[in-house]
Amino acid sequence: MVDGYLPYAADAEQSLTADELLVLQRQYERELPRARVQTKFNYAWGLIKSAARNEQRAGVRLMHEIYDEHAERKRECMYYLAIGYYKMGEHRNARVYIEQLLALEPTNAQARSLHGLIDDKVARDGLIGLAVSGGVVALAGLAIAALFRKKST
User: Fold this and answer.
1) CA-atom Rg of the chain in angstroms
2) Domains of the chain: which residue ranges?
C-alpha cells in the first residue's frame, strides 16, 4: 500500500524516467502521422506520469483525443485523464472523470483509490485555504483594532 491507498493510487504519484519517456516518444513519432491507438495511448500515459506540467498537459491533450475518437478506450482514458488533472492540480476536472468511471464501475478498486486521493487533496487544500483566509481576517481585525486604539488616544 501507498499512504493507506491501494497500490493503484501510486499511478498518480510515480513518474517515468526521462529515458523511459523518450522511448515512448520515439515510438509515437516513428508512427506519425498515423500513430496506432496503443502507441498514442502509451505516450499520453507516459506524459501524464511526468513530473513536468507541460508534459502532463500534452498527455492530457492526447488522452482527450483518444477518449473522443475511440469508444473502446474510454474507460482507460477516464482513469488517466483523472490522474492527469489531479497531478496538474485541477481537482474539479479530475473528479469529473473519476466519477464518470465510478458510475460505470462502482466497485473498481483502482478508481476508488484515486477518488480517495482526489478527495483528500481537495480537503487539504480547503483547510489550507480556510487557514489562510482566517489569518487574513485576523490580521485585518488587528489592524482595525489598532486604528481604533490610535484614534481613541
Assistant:
1) 21
2) 7-152
